[in-house]
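User: Could you go from structure to sequence for me? I need the amino acid at each position, not a summary. Structure tokens:
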């Protein structure tokens, strides 16, 4: 029965063979509809614990990211000192650890349909190895969690719902008001205006 360590070792062996036999699989650029990375390459100080671990033991962060990319969000079987971690450390002693960085970055780009190319992968792996590992780890965390559709995201439905139309209230009939000495407002009695008529009124003669 093959152990998990043996499976990881066999997997890395096959990947290196594939890189040598078919380098075009790694040199192909991202598709036109690729999206930007969720984590910025310059956000390497956040979170601070990942930053400290990566600066002191970059192989640990590399192995953790490999576990997320290959085995998902389940970290119950994760061990800090795994085959990927030890392999990266051995490669760093020979100065070729950037190859493993580049290969893993390519895997994350393919999994998340992210922007990038082989030139960017190589430059970041060689010149900004720690920042590259932190960005990979943060992106792997994002990809390991299933993303909800926009319609099912909490708070989005209520924010996008069309508000109900409230019928406008009719204004109350106008009434003139008058302030009494008591300070109570009372309506003024309405008066009816009688229009003048055309009937002629007989003149009134004074009595002599």
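Assistant: Here is the amino acid at each position, in order:
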């Amino acid at each position: 029965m093959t152990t998990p360590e043996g499976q990881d070792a066999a997997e890395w062996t096959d990947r290196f063979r594939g890189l040598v036999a078919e380098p075009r699989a790694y040199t192909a650029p991202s598709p036109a509809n690729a999206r930007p990375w969720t984590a910025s390459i310059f956000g390497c100080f956040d979170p601070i614990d990942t930053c400290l671990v990566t600066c002191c033991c970059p192989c640990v962060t590399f192995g953790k990211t490999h576990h997320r990319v290959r085995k998902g969000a389940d970290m119950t079987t994760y061990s800090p000192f795994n085959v990927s971690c030890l392999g990266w450390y051995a490669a760093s002693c020979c100065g070729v650890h950037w190859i493993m960085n580049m290969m893993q970055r390519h895997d994350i780009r393919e999994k998340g349909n992210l922007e990038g190319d082989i030139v960017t992968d190589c430059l970041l792996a060689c010149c900004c190895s720690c920042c590259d590992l932190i960005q990979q780890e943060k992106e792997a965390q994002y990809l390991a969690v299933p993303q909800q559709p926009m319609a099912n995201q909490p708070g989005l439905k209520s924010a996008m719902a069309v508000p109900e139309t409230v019928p406008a209230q009719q204004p109350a009939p106008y009434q003139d008001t008058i302030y009494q000495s008591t300070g109570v407002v009372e309506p003024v009695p309405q008066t009816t205006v009688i229009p003048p008529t055309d009937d002629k009124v007989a003149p009134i003669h004074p009595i002599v």
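One structural detail worth keeping in mind: Residues 149-160, 177-181 have pLDDT under 50 and may be disordered.
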